[in-house]
């Protein structure tokens, strides 16, 4: 039997994930229309924050798209999307500084970021194999394959859980430095928190879905093992 009572919880979590994605886009668009008091663009804010933290060698590059912003730890580059790189809004500065927060984490070897970097090659290898092993275990009723699939899937879940403190810490660093360096005023901190909080919610929802799926697989395995 492939339908499990926990599927209801997974469906709810999936709907939460869709809502989180809708919210992050809505929040970003809302505060993209609110200019920051400093008048700086996201690119300028990112550059200043990097330089102030001794990261003068880390470039800020423009990439096409919307909400495609990220910090590349391999190339050590902060990449900002169109509205963030060129925009001077609360949203633009919040997202740009969040990505710089990851660069700062990299510099100071923030433990959870280090752990995520170390586990990534393993996750990248096993995440594609795990679904195949799980399906094979279900269809052929081979508990051994099912167990290996669960172990591999657990690595992917661990990666998502480790990502949560990494994202929250980057946002915390960003918000603190944005105020200290005068990119935003204290009165604008609440709006910046909303932008950063909405983005973090997407990671929370994704982690919740993965945890519930893992719990489902473990329960199925225990049931088949008892049979």
From TrEMBL:
Tagged with keyword Methyltransferase: no
Any Pfam family hit: Zn_peptidase_2
Keywords, alphabetical: Membrane, Transmembrane, Transmembrane helix
Transmembrane annotation, as ranges: 6-22, 119-140, 146-168, 195-219
Claim: Transmembrane helix is one of the keywords in the record: yes
PANTHER family reported for this sequence: MEMBRANE PROTEASE YUGP-RELATED
UniProt protein name: Peptidase
Organism: Brevibacillus centrosporus
Taxonomic placement: Bacteria, Bacillati, Bacillota, Bacilli, Bacillales
């Amino acid at each position: 039997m492939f339908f499990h009572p926990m599927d209801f919880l997974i469906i709810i979590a999936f709907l939460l994930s869709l809502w989180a994605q809708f919210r992050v886009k809505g929040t970003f668009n809302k505060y993209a229309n609110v200019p920051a008091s400093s008048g700086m663009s996201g690119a300028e804010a990112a550059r200043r924050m990097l330089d102030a933290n001794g990261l003068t060698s880390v470039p800020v590059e423009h990439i096409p798209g919307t909400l495609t912003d990220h910090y590349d730890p391999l190339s050590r580059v902060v990449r900002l999307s169109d509205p963030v790189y060129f925009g001077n809004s609360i949203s633009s500065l919040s997202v740009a500084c969040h990505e710089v927060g990851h660069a700062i984490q990299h510099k100071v070897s923030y433990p959870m970021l280090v752990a995520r970097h170390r586990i990534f090659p393993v996750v990248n290898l096993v995440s594609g194999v795990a679904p195949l092993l799980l399906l094979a275990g279900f269809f052929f009723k081979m508990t051994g394959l099912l167990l290996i699939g669960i172990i591999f899937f657990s690595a992917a879940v661990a990666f998502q859980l480790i990502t949560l403190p990494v994202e929250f810490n980057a946002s915390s660093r960003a918000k603190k430095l944005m105020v200290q360096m005068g990119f935003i005023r204290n009165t604008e901190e609440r709006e910046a928190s909303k932008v950063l909080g909405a983005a973090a919610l997407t990671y929370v929802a994704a982690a919740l879905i993965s945890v519930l799926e893992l719990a489902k697989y473990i329960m199925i395995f225990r049931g088949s093992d008892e049979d």
